[in-house]
């Protein structure tokens, strides 16, 4: 039961994280820091260098000045190279684009309420009509 509650809570946090640009950027920075935190001890590098490696790897630049040689470091690199460009960047781009797209033909709330009221009246008139 506790596992189910935990899964639901994690799902809620993840959903909220991708709901806005700030959440997505937080998710991105979180991925960078987690990858750097894995990379630094497994590769015997200072955290500052690991952070540099994580940013360079996440952006798929890969200068080659720092690279993983351990299996764990390589797995962290592979995960980072796939998560950021395939999931996080498209989500950020989609969220930003959705804010730029404005539907000028959309009904306002007041207009929607008026339409619903008119439909109720039409429906009532149809019910009064003999078949």
Describe this entry's structure for a reader:
By secondary structure, the protein is mainly α. It has a single domain, classed as Helix Hairpins. About 75% of the residues lie in helices and about 0% in strands. It contains 5 helices and no strands. The longest helix has 30 residues. The radius of gyration is 25 Å and the shape is elongated. The termini are far apart.
Q: How are the SSEs placed, and which strands pair?
A:
Blueprint: H1 2-17, H2 21-43, H3 47-58, H4 71-100, H5 109-128
Short description:
The protein has 131 residues and is mainly α.
Number of helices: 5
Low-confidence stretches: none
Distance between the terminal alpha carbons, to the nearest Å? 57 Å
CATH second-level architecture? Orthogonal Bundle
Q: Order of helices and strands, N to C?
A: HHHHH
The major beta sheet can be summarized as: none
Transmembrane segments: 21-39, 51-69, 75-94
Subcellular location: Membrane
InterPro entries: K_chnl_dom (IPR013099), VG_K_chnl (IPR028325)
Domain Potassium channel: 32-90
Tags for this entry?
K_chnl_dom; ion transport; 0% strand; Helix Hairpins; transmembrane; VG_K_chnl; mainly alpha; single chain; 131 residues; elongated
């Amino acid at each position: 039961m506790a596992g189910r509650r935990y899964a639901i809570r994690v799902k809620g946090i993840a959903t909220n994280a991708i709901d806005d640009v700030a959440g997505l950027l937080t998710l991105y920075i979180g991925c960078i820091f987690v990858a750097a935190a894995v990379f630094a001890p497994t590769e015997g590098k200072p955290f500052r260098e690991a952070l540099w490696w994580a940013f360079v790897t996440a952006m798929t630049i890969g200068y080659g000045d720092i690279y993983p040689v351990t299996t764990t470091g390589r797995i962290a690199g592979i995960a980072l190279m796939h998560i950021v460009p395939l999931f996080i960047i498209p989500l950020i781009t989609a969220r930003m684009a959705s804010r730029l797209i404005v539907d000028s033909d959309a009904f306002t709330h007041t207009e929607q309420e008026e339409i619903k009221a008119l439909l109720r009246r039409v429906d009532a008139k149809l019910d009064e009509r003999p078949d």
